[in-house]
Write a structure and sequence with these properties.
The protein has five helices and no strands. The chain is mainly α and 128 residues long. It has one domain. The protein starts with a helix and ends with a helix.
Length: 128
């Protein structure tokens, strides 16, 4: 695969990685398992157990595992055709996926902020 195709694949493959990582670590559908992991990440006696459960509540941490899965199923490599390509491709995918998640989070905050401003303005206009 030529370099331009590798880069295009990098940006496209990071989309489902970001989507899965964000959904599991933030969205309501996984709230109960996430709350369980939050609790375990705080109360487990052994540090490695706390870290294990933390992996499921941190989108950055979890994106590494999702990326490893996608590297396995897609055989994606960046720059090199050997193990180095997996290593570089893996970290590049994590980085791009986390940029997507940061952008998504920022957009959600902006939308929420605009919604609150609108509600405040509506209350002012209605005289409540």
């Amino acid at each position: 695969m030529n370099l331009s195709m590798q880069v295009a694949t990098l940006f496209l493959l990071a989309i489902p990685i970001a989507c899965i990582s964000w959904t599991i670590t933030h969205e309501e559908v996984f709230r109960e398992p996430r709350e369980f992991c939050v609790e375990k990440s705080k109360i487990c006696e052994r540090w490695y157990k706390r870290k294990f459960f933390y992996l499921f509540i941190c989108e950055f941490c979890f994106s590494h595992y999702v990326t490893a899965f996608f590297l396995f199923i897609t055989n994606y490599k960046l720059l090199f055709d050997d193990w180095r390509g997996y290593l570089i491709g893996g970290f590049a995918l994590v980085w791009v996926a986390n940029q997507y998640m940061s952008l998504f989070n920022r957009l959600r905050l902006d939308i929420k902020s605009e919604k609150i401003e609108t509600q405040i303005k509506e209350k002012i206009v209605s005289g409540d």
